[in-house]
Amino acid sequence: MSLALILAPVFVLILLGATLNRWGFPGAGFWGPAEQLTYYVLFPALILTTLSEADLSQLAWKPLAVGLAAAITAITAVTLVTGTLTGCQGPKISSLVQGAIRMNTYVGLAVASWGFGAAGLAYAAVSIAIIVPLVNTLCVAVLAIYAEPTVGGSSSGLVRGLCSNPLILACIAGITLNASGYAIPPIADEVTRVLGRAALPLGLLAVGAALRAEAFRRLGWPEALASAAKLLVLPALASALLLLLGVEGQAFGIGIVFTALPTAPSSYLLAKQMGGDAESMAAMVTCQTLAAAITLPGWLTWINSF
């Protein structure tokens, strides 16, 4: 499939979401609940059905896990050191770390589904099972150390939230069903599939609705460097590590796609809740989502050269 056919639907839906929100349709109160529905119901349904049916014995997930974890941890350390040496304040540093390592799984699953097929979607679900716990743990730890201590929202509460993360729970449930040999009952299976099919379009529309043009006013060189680390340095480092570990084919492609994704809109909410620099985070969310329209095609072109 051509790059245009893979990426055009992704960014057209994001643009449509931004346009609808700007026009006030279907209303200011729609997008928050829509994003929650996608996060808590639709995407878990998609992950559950994907992992429960995948042939996990054929997935080279162990070297993929090692490579992704090593790359993400390294970028976290570099961002912390760079932020400290350049004199950034604690809340700013915590948001720079989020901007450098968090990723928009909605975009990643869409690219995997439309560009890599069923096997790619299975690798995407496995990547989420690897990335989401690690990234959330790192971000919560950094926020607990560097963010403003007077702001509401405790690290212990967010750790509990991590343990009840719907994407992680869906991964666990899907892998458990797969390993047990039991299938989802037919009616429940069909309902889950219908819900999963709604996840990608609604999730991407919600991503677009979360973009804020005015956030560009807060985009300085620290945010630009963190964004470059996220969209360019992290996938480059992951590429080197995955190749070194012998990861190839769709596992390699999905690993690079997920490390090349823009940061997640939920980063803004986490920064606001735990005392990070929320406005800086909003600037990076908008900047990276728009910049990914250029960088993602570049990475996909490079992946296709293998």
From TrEMBL:
Source domain of life: Bacteria
Gene3D superfamilies for this protein: 1.20.1530.20
PANTHER family: AUXIN EFFLUX CARRIER FAMILY PROTEIN
Keywords, comma-separated and alphabetical: Cell membrane, Membrane, Transmembrane, Transmembrane helix, Transport
Record-given protein name: Membrane transport protein
Transmembrane regions: 37-56, 63-85, 121-146, 167-188, 194-213, 225-245, 251-271, 283-303
Gene Ontology BP annotations: transmembrane transport
Family: Belongs to the auxin efflux carrier (TC 2.A.69) family.
Membrane protein topology class: Multi-pass membrane protein
The organism's taxonomic lineage, starting at the top: Bacteria, Pseudomonadati, Planctomycetota, Planctomycetia, Pirellulales
Gene Ontology CC entries for this record: plasma membrane
Subcellular location: Cell membrane
Transmembrane helix listed as a keyword: yes
